[in-house]
Amino acid sequence: MKCCLAARKTRVVYATLRHADAVMKTSYPLPRIPVCKRFHLLEIKGDISVPDIRDVAQRAGCSIATVSRALNSPRQVRPQTLARVQAAVAELKFRPNAIGRQLRGERTGLIGVMLPTLGNPVFADCIEGIEAALGGTGQRLVLVTTRYDPERERNAIETLLQQRVDGLLLTLADAESNPLLDDLAAERVPFQLLYNDAQIRPAVSVDNRLAAADGVKMLIDAGHRDIAMISGALHASDRAKRRYLGYCDAMTMAGLSPRPALEIDFNAGARAAHVREALAQRTDAAWCPTALFCSNDLLALGVMRALRESGLRIPDDMSILGFDGLAFGELLSPTLATVSQPSVDIGRHAALRLLDQIAGRTDGGRALILPHAVRMGGTVKCRARAGAGVTPDYVA
Amino acid sequence: MKCCLAARKTRVVYATLRHADAVMKTSYPLPRIPVCKRFHLLEIKGDISVPDIRDVAQRAGCSIATVSRALNSPRQVRPQTLARVQAAVAELKFRPNAIGRQLRGERTGLIGVMLPTLGNPVFADCIEGIEAALGGTGQRLVLVTTRYDPERERNAIETLLQQRVDGLLLTLADAESNPLLDDLAAERVPFQLLYNDAQIRPAVSVDNRLAAADGVKMLIDAGHRDIAMISGALHASDRAKRRYLGYCDAMTMAGLSPRPALEIDFNAGARAAHVREALAQRTDAAWCPTALFCSNDLLALGVMRALRESGLRIPDDMSILGFDGLAFGELLSPTLATVSQPSVDIGRHAALRLLDQIAGRTDGGRALILPHAVRMGGTVKCRARAGAGVTPDYVA
DNA sequence: ATGAAAGCGCTAACAT
DNA sequence: ATGTTAGCGCTTTCAT
Predict the structure, then answer these.
(1) With an 8 Å Cβ cutoff, are A305 and B331 in contact?
(2) Domain A2-30+207-344 architecture
(3) B118 touches chain A (CB under 8 A)
């Protein structure tokens, strides 16, 4: 084995020396410098290249099997041997190669996370929750963002599966009609959706429809009658769709007429312009809302800015309700009224469920609906009317 | 080869069937179900387990080398053969195993990203920039957060290196005294720092000291004389330290006395309480600032909230200057004055530099300093005094 | 308690 | 243009 080892080393060393021809012939085949030997390669004195388990074994005077055991189940090896191995590991600065382990083992310890963007703090918070749950488990996160682009979603999932992640945590633009999920289910890939509330899927979310309805009901209770909803492209987001349904529910329930949603292309940069355009539509019509339900907080912020630029005051000329519960909303003045969802918990629970699923303890389950909360705020004006009865208390 | 293939399949199938003893004996060794065979395992009809390159080869009637070539350099194979391989790939839903490739190849296509937290939008923005730069290159992100904890930093780097990432993008709590960086450099691991401006390192950042000085100078120009700086634990963050130096520079330059920084433990949850405590210190002293320079925007927001809870008005009773340039700051009223740094660009440039470095086109270089900008805002009151001369225009 | 060896999926050198 | 084969680093089975 010793000579074999030496040969291996020799090859690698010469490989670094610009593939010196004479030496290349001496061994077969001569691969390109492999990933595991990338660092240190040009130091020709003493120990060369990144040490592997065989180097450790040689140094400790035992077999690679023993080294492996010393690393993974130390109690299986004699204390004396263990000490020698540990010494060798330290001296060589041996760093176990996760790739070798992953190729051999039944798990990679990788979790694929796919989100639309990190520009929305909702998703950043969610990752914090995921990391918190993964905490000590030693799982690593592979992160991809998709910008709500179905094409990118498909590619990203494919990439993550090629990387053999143990499971996926994902937010799709639209989970309802998405064949990708059937594929994942058919392939038995453990996954949990985040935010998408497709009931039949393993998912962690709020009940978007109900939450939106609760929010709009709050507006109605505050005396508003003409309420419009504004959202990103409805067809592209199942959450927007559900929230729109919730808006309709609340309006209908109160005997009011829901209006078509004002759609704003989220991905287009010129947000303020689009908002003004949508508002122009509104102005043209005979109908004039006193309150705007925005399908998410980021949109609400953009809308508020656009309204102010148009000279409208909030909430006097227009009340605003968002959705998400961004912490920043509370720092605004007036504070942003919003329907808040527990982003950190969504991430945390999804990660925990995924771990259970990966471990085979569950099959992933169905949708887990977490509680939402309507957060009153200064962006909503109470058009106090005696007729409406008791004003309910909303959760802060 | 055919029988060999069959044997392999058989083994795997039976392995899923709870390690049926009689069959276990027939082949050697019988590994645990490897990672690549995790999905589909329990379907006993038809094709079983995840296909590998040999399955494709068999189906296409060629060798695995040909399949590999068809996948990686299609023009090297005869169109007819290529078609057969592609058909086989499609029929079997073959998904190349990145782990095998990584083990064999000289690169993993993995980029390790280590950041303190995603709770601060600065870092989320930075990731957006990184992703934008990585765009089409097919590199994947492995993400770890450290909560400014040196212990976690060490572990995270070790984990990422075990995963054989091609390079690292990282923000350290304190890069200056950090031996980890020497280790990385010694091991020839390509890396770029984000935000840390340790000049001798490969890093992308603003000049924190100068930027802070510019910000404080703005305060001085606005007529403030008693200016305090408030920050997270100074010893834990090189940026906070440099920004404090910048504060001192500007004060001294104007003939004013810099004060010791009011330190607030960032990681401790009870932020408002800590702020009040720090302010109490201030009140006890004879000295009373009219302006507060906060070492980052998130801190500024917390401070503002605490001040308001204490009944102080901003900017009338106290002016506030932040650092970071969070987009949210512009939505507040009053808008947050801040020293903005180009987070997205920091991420983008660092990623680009890292790619060059990985490709061997550069050695990583030294610090790249990007331009900062002082953003005036409503949180700063102009104590207009005729004596100060011309009021400069600050970049919006 | 330890060692020998097979093989995870893939790529590339060499041979044909 | 295609096939054969070694081997990347590791874990685990079986044998000792």
Answers:
(1) yes
(2) 3-Layer(aba) Sandwich (3.40)
(3) yes
Positions in chain A short of pLDDT 50: 1-32, 36, 38-47, 269-270, 386-396
A chain contacts of residue B162, beta-carbon cutoff 8 Å: 95-98
B234 exposure class (CB count in 10 Å sphere: 0-12, 13-18, 19+): middle
Give the gap in angstroms from C-alpha B388 to the nearest C-alpha of chain A.
32
Amino acid at A123: F
Bases in strand C with any atom closer than 7 Å to a protein CB: 1-14
CATH class of A39-48+101-204+345-368: alpha beta
Percentages helix, strand, coil for chain A (3-state, rounded to 5) are 45, 15, 40
Confirm whether pTM is higher than 0.70. yes
| Distance of C1' in C5 from CA in A97, Å | 20
* Test mutation, A37, A43, A106, chain B, max B CBs within 10 A: A106
Q: Are strands B227-231 and B262-263 parallel, antiparallel or unpaired?
A: parallel
Q: What is the average pLDDT across B239-256?
A: 97
- A104: its two tokens: 């051999």
Q: Which has more pLDDT, B15 or A285?
A: A285
Residue A99: which of B109, B287, B378, B134 has the closest Cα? Answer: B109
Cα pseudo-dihedral A207, A241, B135, A31, rounded to 10: 60
Q: Which carries the bigger pLDDT value, residue B262 or residue A379?
A: A379
CB A99 within 8 A of CB A36: yes
B158 touches chain A (CB under 8 A): yes
Q: Given CA atoms A326, A332, A335, A337 in this order, what sign does their dihedral have?
A: negative
Closest CA to B97 of A111, A158, A181, A98: A158
Phi then psi dihedrals of residue B7, to 5 deg: -60, -45
- Residues of chain A contacting residue B118, judged by C-beta atoms under 8 Å apart: 118, 124-125, 127-128
Mean pLDDT (whole number) for B140-149: 95
Phi, psi dihedrals of residue A246, rounded to the nearest 5°? -65, -40
B1 shares contact with chain A (CB less than 8 Å): no
**CB contact (8 A) between residue A163 and residue B98:** yes
What one-letter code names the amino acid at B332? L
The domain ranges of chain B are 2-30+207-344, 39-48+101-204+345-368, 53-92
Shortest CB distance from A164 goes to which of B36, B41, B164? Answer: B36
- The answer to whether the B2-30+207-344 and B39-48+101-204+345-368 domains have the same CATH topology is yes
Cα A298–Cα A305–Cα B293 angle in degrees, nearest 5: 85
